[in-house]
Design brief:
Radius of gyration: 14 Å
Structural class: alpha+beta
Strand content: 15-25%
Order of helices and strands: EHEEHEH
Number of helices: 3
Shape: globular
Helix content: 25-40%
Number of strands: 4
Largest sheet: 4 strands, mixed
Strand order of the largest sheet: 2-1-3-4
């Protein structure tokens, strides 16, 4: 499969990978509406980033886990995938959305709350 940009294809975007395996997105992380948070991420970022849920990112002890991969311009600027762990605070979803809208890894600095 070729990753080259086809004529008329949209510009490269960040990819937001949300773990929804054995621990992330389940009752093992109580008090969180995991389905609603995923829906918000897809609704808020769908036009500017690829948002995908995967079965497991193998960091179960740090659930919920999200990986934000840079866009092509972000990679060209030195951006690398950013692993966000323990993303259980409702405000973190908004912070991730704002960061990705600002360009994500390599383009914009992540919000301080994501350093925790």
């Amino acid at each position: 499969m070729s990753r080259r940009k086809a004529p008329g294809q949209a510009a490269p975007r960040c990819t937001v990978t949300v773990c929804r395996g054995c621990c992330c997105g389940t009752a093992k992380v109580p008090g969180t509406d995991h389905a609603a948070r995923l829906a918000v991420r897809k609704a808020e970022l769908g036009a500017i980033a690829q948002v995908r849920a995967v079965n497991c990112l193998d960091a179960c002890e740090q659930a919920d886990v999200i990986v934000v991969q840079p866009s092509s311009p972000g990679r060209a600027a030195g951006g690398r995938p950013v692993w966000l762990r323990l993303v259980n605070d409702p405000g973190a979803t908004g912070d991730i959305v704002v960061w990705v809208r600002s360009g994500g890894p390599g383009v914009a600095d992540p919000p301080d709350i994501l350093d925790l």
